[in-house]
Amino acid sequence: MNNEIVIRTNKGEYHTDSHVYGAVYLHVCRPTEAHGIKVTFRGEEKCLFEHKHHGEWEKLTGQCNHVEFFDVPLYSQKDVFEIGRYVFPFKFELSKDVPGSFTSSKQTDEHSFNASVTYSISACAIGAEDLKAIQPIVVYPVQEEEMSQRLFTEASSRTVTAPGLLVKKKCHITAKLLDNFTERGSNLQIRIIITNESKLKLTGFSIKLMRDLKLKFPAPPSSANIGDNNNNNMHLVDDMIHIQPEGGPKVIRSAAGSTDSLFIGSGGLDRLQLPLSENLPEGLIHVPSSVSGKYVKNQYGVEVSVSFSNNHTETFILNIPGVLPKPNSQWSKWRPPDWAFHCDTKLSSCIFSVTEQMLRTQHFSGLPMFQVL
């Protein structure tokens, strides 16, 4: 049997401005040079865009770390670890300004891009660095307090006045999302309320899910004459190249219909479902999550249009505060080894270590060795 190390956080997903709790588990079953544990917590944004410029392919790249605690010595001792089982609890803090987890890519004959924001936490043994483990985590682009108010969505309204009447009677249209934050792969729910006191008839409606994807890169010297590229989706602004690889806001999905059977006088549509997915040649694909990073920004909105018998159409936009990334499947599928329930707890004075009292709180209750009985 070989020496083994595993790492486990208390959750698979975290909100911005929250703490990440977890533990490193070490099983020493044969002599080792290991005498400590160091951990790395990293959040990395990468963006690559390749396009044809004057007939030749040009590459634009952007990369930065939003979180980087590198090789933090969580625990260290003078002597090597003896045969046994050890656990090293830790705690990190996420800034409220970090972008959420994100990944998206696309390739056409004229350009391709690949963008991602990923987070991971890893551990290795000091003195035996080949003994290491890594676990990805998912970051939601919203603070926990905002998530608790996710159902308090902001409505958008329009008022239409019927022309040619001595007494101006009006038709009021109100639309709202039923949830501010919706997980990618699920359905967006929309409510439309109609209060019609006029003689105008409602003849139809349409709803469109829109995506606005933007990339931004430091401009290389070859981009000085970027206007010659005849690409209206690529602009040079203050030594930065701004790109809309999908040509501006793109319609991802739409729904439309006649309102004859839906609106009689006053009425509306409740819980209209709009799937957060798009039909592509390779099949039905879940839309990427919302993100606002240094090099990539991805936002969504819903365009609502209602048409009337006088050929007038009223159109307005509902902003979607956030499409959340999918839960951390790797974390949920993890099963702890039996030996992780019988370890010697090792604490230290490191700023990322925790107190013995904290080990008895709910933050550690789901981890092996720290269940509350």
What does the model show?
The chain is an all-beta fold. It folds into 2 domains: 177 residues, Immunoglobulin-like (Sandwich); 167 residues, Immunoglobulin-like (Sandwich), CATH 2.60.40.640. It is 3% helix and 57% strand. The protein has 2 helices and 25 strands. Strands 14, 15, 16, 17, 21, 22 and 23 form a 7-stranded antiparallel beta sheet that branches. Strands 2, 4, 5, 7, 8 and 9 form a 6-stranded mixed beta sheet that branches. The longest helix has 5 residues. The two termini are 32 Å apart. The model has no long low-confidence stretch (mean pLDDT 88).
Produce the secondary structure layout.
Elements (H helix, E strand, L loop, with lengths): L3 E6 L3 E4 L2 E10 L7 E18 L2 E21 L7 E10 L8 E6 L3 E16 L1 E16 H5 L7 E6 L8 E8 L3 E3 L3 E10 L5 E17 L15 E4 L2 E4 L6 E8 L9 E9 L1 E4 L2 E4 L4 E2 L3 E13 L4 E8 L1 E3 L4 H5 L10 E2 L28
Parallel strand pairs: 2-9, 6-25, 12-24
Antiparallel strand pairs: 1-3, 3-6, 4-5, 4-8, 7-8, 8-9, 10-11, 11-13, 13-18, 14-16, 14-17, 14-22, 15-16, 19-20, 21-22, 22-23
